[in-house]
Structures
1.
Amino acid sequence: MHGEVLWNVYIAIYLFLAGISAGSAVLAAVNQLFGIWEEKVTKAAAYVAPFPVMGGLLALVLDLSRPLNFYQVMLHYNWTSVMSWGVVFLNLFPPVALLFAVSHFTGWFEKYRKALAVAVMALGVGIGTYAGLLLAAISANPLWGNPVLGVLFLVSALSTGVCAAMLVAQFVFKVSHQSLKGLAVVDSTLIILELVVIAVLLIGWAVAPTGGKALQILLAGEYAGIFLGGVLVFGLLVPLALNLLELGAFGKARHIPAVAPLLVLVGGYFLRHVIVYAGQAIYPLLLG
Amino acid sequence: MANKRYGMVIDLRKCAGCHACTVACKAENKVPDGIKRTKIIEEETGEFPNVAITFRKHQCMHCQDAPCVKVCPTKASYHTEFGTCEVDPKLCIGCKYCVHACPYRARTINPENGLPEKCTLCVDKLAKGELPACATTCIGNAITVGDLNDPNSEVSRAVAKGARPLNPEWNTKPSIFYIWNRR
């Protein structure tokens, strides 16, 4: 009844998996277009990109209360609905990301790889951003109704996507330590950006007329433990410290394999979980 | 001739909080256990010692600028020709976005069919010249229904005399108006 959860773990899992796909697609495209690191990095990221979002789409359908009707969302569009825009991105992203991955796997249509990279990057940014705006469009919700969520979800998508690609690059493609260090720099930059965006959001809630409820539940209420511990400390600050240690910011560089990217991934899930659940907890239905 | 726009005026001075409207609605619309399309909310007003409890019938406000209609990805949530909000079961996928979007928190999900459950203003009965179940059963005659586009209708006259929607500052243009009993 009160505080009833309508969007549950399926939605949190979907947002998490779609974010990983979006982020790794952007990383693959950037390396394809600018050749910053060795080609194995592009391959690792390109192979990751198409698949998490497919699992996410399954979770999305499982969340529906009328799942057999799901195809209607692809036949009918409402351009005032952020969800319809999401459907456009989600229709286009998996096939384009799959083509891009196939191109790298088989060596086919090499001529079009740059065009594919541009397309998959645009769609990746679209998916990363729309996910936050989906919630922000519920403007009456004290926690969700904040457009900065669009930026937060994009930065977190990039961060989790880079980390997923990093793990594959390290353990499957055995990329050079040089490339891994480069990715750790990107990862650290994204973590710092994400901390800034979270600070902006917290200030936004603090100054909004109804935002006090959002601050209360995240910083002192039911979801404070998972937000402060799972997201801020173990999802962002600890991996940032580990990255800096790895990069030699505190004297001699030490190699700490895979812990930082794993923590970022877990923190990325917690972030979505906390926002989806806390937003509903402080905005109860009246007729449930 | 302008289309009809059905609306409701609820005179809170006449509401005793008896819940007959809630029960009549559940019986009429076969609403499953645990959820309701309309219910009485007790609201405290004023400051001690000048305090009062108001019984307010809560329900879908049938907004003309409805957030639920705006966010529905398939246009399953729509306005009928009478200006009321309704859900088309053929198009609804059960994404629950409308339930989240309603600032009046007036929707919920029907566990039996997965559809958003909410007041329809009994628009089918209105079209036949009958009244909604809640209006016919109200012991205090607190519920009036009629055409807001007809300036001579009872509802239009009540609005002209000062009946106000809940939270008009949200700019959703509700079709449900209240005559408040605050002194």
2.
Amino acid sequence: MTEVHVARGRDGSIRVAAAPGGDDESALGPDFTRSVLDVAGALLVWPVLGAQTPPVADVHDVRRAQQWLWAVYGDGVAAAVHDAAAGEPAGVRVRARPGALAGTAARLGLGHWAARWWPASYTDGIAELEGDVLGLELAALTHQCQELFDDLDDGVAELIEEHRAALDPLLRWWHATPRPAQTARHLGSVLRLIDDAADCAGLDGPELRRLRSALEEERGHGRTSAPVDLSALFAGRDGHALAAGAAPGAGGRVIARGSGTNDWRRYPPGFVDAAEDAVSWTARAHGELRQIEVEVVAHVTAPAAGVPLAAEVRVNGGDPHRVPLTRRDDVWTGRGELDLRPGAGLPVTAPPRIEVGVLLPGFDPGHGPDTGVERAAIRDLARRRLADAAQPGAYGTQPFLAEILAAATGEDY
Amino acid sequence: MPPPSQPIGERRPRAQVIDHAWRDLGAGLESLSGPGGAPLTRTVKLIVLPLIVRPALHAELAADFLQPAEAARLDALIRESGSLLTATAQWFTLLKKARRALGVVAGNPQDLYFQRCFELATEHGAPSAGADEVARAVVDEVVHAGGGRTVEALKDCLADPALRARLAEELAAAWESRGPARDAAEALAPAAEVLETCTAPEPNPSAYARMIELRHGELFGRVVWAQPGGLWGGAEPPAHLGLTARPVPPRPEIGRGASTATLPAPLDRTLFERLFVVLQSSARREELPTVPELVARESGRSCAPLGLYDESLRVAVVLGACLAVGLDPLGTGAPGPARTAAHKVVNSRWRREASVLRARRMTVSPHPDPDGGALDALAQDLRTPWVPYMRRLWVRLHGRDVRGAPPADLASVWAVLDGVARSVMMDHRARVRAALRALSAAPATAADAAEPRSA
């Protein structure tokens, strides 16, 4: 039996959560351990790590939220939210009866999370998820949860438009009647949902027309079966060979080296390998001059140029300064001067404490608390999900198509 | 421990009653239903509620929770409409087919056709012989519903040299005869009072009515014409809050063209640009005045205070301005002007938005960053939130002025003010997404990351 706590918060919004307690969102863990959905009249939040639970809802427009509250939590919770909006701020415990919509919504939230925080890493052996395949499955899931959204806010049309490049490859994958049968059914269901969503939103285009006629044909006389090479189907999934090249010819005497911090929150997805040790640095002495070289392992899909990624270097807890990074093969590298004069109160002989991070200027929300433990937990989650995706149907989980694809084509990681 | 769960009793959520009644109707409703069999959100909003439930006639069905008798009544209303709804669904399928055949892609078919389909079903029942032609005719009619109210017609109209000469004279005369400015402080104090109460379910209308009566909107418009600063105090945004890019608004020009990507600030726009936005963004263009009428009215309007004729719309600008200077999208908590109930609502909306953006890895740095490029420009907008806010608010109010559709009461003013806040947020989210996408795409496109502003 699942119970939830329903109470009115300080700002007048109604909170539905497993336990009473605070508007303090840091209790939910760092940003990258939460999946969120912005639904009609409310925000839904699930922890990504840990057991599956009903979401935490922050309901700011009770009337709009009534369209789905009963279907996600059951009518008892819907009534409690209604009463809380009208009455006292004191909370009540109510039995939740999550409906089918709750499960699909959680999956949609998790998919959005994976699209932004999947810890793809060459060195960790965590394969990248194909963005267009995941995007199309998100469109299908959004359509499946259409009751959650106010008409214009669901984003289905944008998702289909943005990721339409994967429609033809998905169709060919489906036509190849993949094994196990569950994957074939999964593909067929996603494709049908996309067709229906596109029809509802009045979208048109060559890929969508091909999809429609393929689905109509299938209704007539089944699919043809032909073997398919998945890595060839989804171009650009060939992994990357690590640069054999020599270290940037720096010269000088190495005086210190170490690893930096790879805080995922400080740059957008798709630029930096998610491994904990992706950031490394070397300090060298050239006569009087002190220089630092920073190397950051690039994400498999990182753009070759034009991104002003930077390393942030801090010596002995002093002011941070930036070293611009440029892409060289599979690493971002940069070199800057280093001021190693000892800080006040430190003996001249103490080795300098050098902290290095990587960030995207303009994006970086700032230096945050250490979240290495949570990053490790997320990597474990990703590995577990990929292992499950390698045998879809074998376990209780239902992997995303992009995970099945990554598990099937990611051996070269 | 909190008190035990309150029993729900016999009442049921109206949405659930509708959902169950809908599913009980069985097959034949697929084109109006979502993948799981529930009615589409728009089916409920555009067909079930306004055309079948009709809460205006059945006030007892307007509530979110229904007692058993009312639930049974609602269930019966939907059940009785079963064959009508099935016919509506068939017409909708037919209209979508006709739309594809005619190559129409603009607009959302549900918005465009749902009501028409219900009318067709009421009139003809299920589609029968000749229905294909009817469907094509309806799709065609919807496409041409604007009745010549197009940007092209505007261009033709304003190409006439005689008309341009006359408009130039009118603009010069109207601009010269503008009255002098008084101190606007007397408009700002009651505005704060109104913002304190307007979020209530039934706001007290008297302070708002007094602002209209004392013409506080006109007063503010005159100050904007005359006075570049010194109105808002504190960090001192300009008096006009970005409604013009200059110290005070210039006399409007006539203009010959416009582009969404390069529209200037609202009060710097030409007559052409002002009407271009109206024609581009209107869903029901057939309800607008004709193009020559639009042009004839706009020259006087553009020289009226705040570029608006209707005083209640001008008062809405004052309210929006007072709201906008107290917004804190970055959650810095910086001391601002006294924050009202309206500010609290919108600022907590921004707090939620910020937490969504962080969880979706779509942040902008809270502090200015010279290396930040397009993302820094987006953050800058959040540091001066009144600029995007007033821009959107003005466009919306101008559209209402052109249509002669001023807000009916304070509740509808608040709906506009809150709706604009939401649009500014969604716009910000879309632009961050576009800027990040441009960064991860080919390097050549990184420079023009920011999407064109939509006015």
